[in-house]
Amino acid sequence: MIKKTTLVVMAAGMGSRFGGLKQAEPITEDGKAILDFTVYDAKKAGFNKAVFILREDMQEDFKQLVGNRIAKTIETEYVLQDTSVLPAGRSKPFGTGHAIYCCKDAVKEPFAIVNADDYYGSNAFYEMHEHLTKAQAGEYAMTAYLLGNTVSKNGTISRGVCETENGYLKKITEVTKIDANGKAAIDGQTVTFPADTPVSMNLWGLMPDIFELLETEYKKFLQTANLMKDEFFIPSVISRAIETDKASVRVYQNADKWYGITYREDLQEVKDAIGGYIRDGLYENL
To answer: Which residue of 5, 90, 100, 232 is surrounded by the most CB atoms within 10 Å?
Structure first.
């Protein structure tokens, strides 16, 4: 019996570098967003449900621009990322780990998580769905892309740089401000990452037991972090689970070109790429 699987979409980001609600930005002439293609790919691979994580102040706009359209094609639910926990003076949510934690009452089955503004390609969802239908508690997965396929020529990006061993994740390090040539500053030193460095684009396959781990680590975060600026990242929680032997993470290497909208200047490249896939017949009846 194949398990039910859910796609959890992190769509509560501020879009500050982009300047607007980039999760719903049209990339086709008829107004479809990257999310339309992501959900199409996931559903075709076997995912049964989509859960969108939003901020309360963007919920209605998101539904009108993209959510209501997607809800006609797949079972859909919305989860609001709780901002009441933010200290006075902070408007940015606590990050991806907190976003997933907010889904604890809505997601009871194996699930994959993705960013709303990233295009992952159809191959990744087939591999992830196959993994999730067979996985047990603590048997997680991630899709690793090649760094050179994920950089932006329009500015720096942040990536989870992965160390793997025998097909499993050994360590993941969040590196910020990586330029188009793979260069980044770490502890005051300039480091150049090779183009074939495996990186995370937040495509994770998780089991419901992750919520217990998230709760434990979130409590620690609230007690020890600088709540005005620090973020509670999902890779940090997963890394801790690996270190304490509470989880393993199978790494699926993906050589597809990633497309995403970090900066407004990225839009045209995304439009051109997905337009090509449409012409090739990959998205019939979408």
So the answer is: 100
- Mark out the alpha helices in the chain (DSSP H runs): 34-45, 59-62, 68-70, 96-101, 122-134, 210-224, 234-243, 267-279
Annotate 212-245 with b (16+ C-beta within 10 A) or e (fewer): ebbeebbeebeeeeebeeeebbbbbbbbebbeee
User: In whole angstroms, what is the distance from residue 201 CA to residue 204 CA?
Assistant: 9
Q: Could you count the other beta carbons within 10 Å of the beta carbon of residue 57? A: 11
Instruction: Encode pLDDT of 18-39 as tens digits.
Output: 345 667 888 899 989 999 999 9
User: Residue 15 and residue 23: Cα distance in Å, rounded?
Assistant: 8
- DSSP class of 237: H
Residues 112-150 have pLDDT tens digits of 999 998 999 989 999 999 999 999 999 999 999 999 999
Helix (H) or strand (E) holding 186: strand 183-186
Helix (H, G, I), strand (E, B) or coil at 206: strand
**Alpha carbon distance 191, 227 (integer Å):** 29
Q: Are 286 and 275 in contact (CB under 8 A)?
A: no
Distance CA 199, CA 239 (A): 14
- pTM of the predicted model over 0.85: yes
* Domains present along the chain, CATH in parentheses: 6-279 (3.90.550.10)
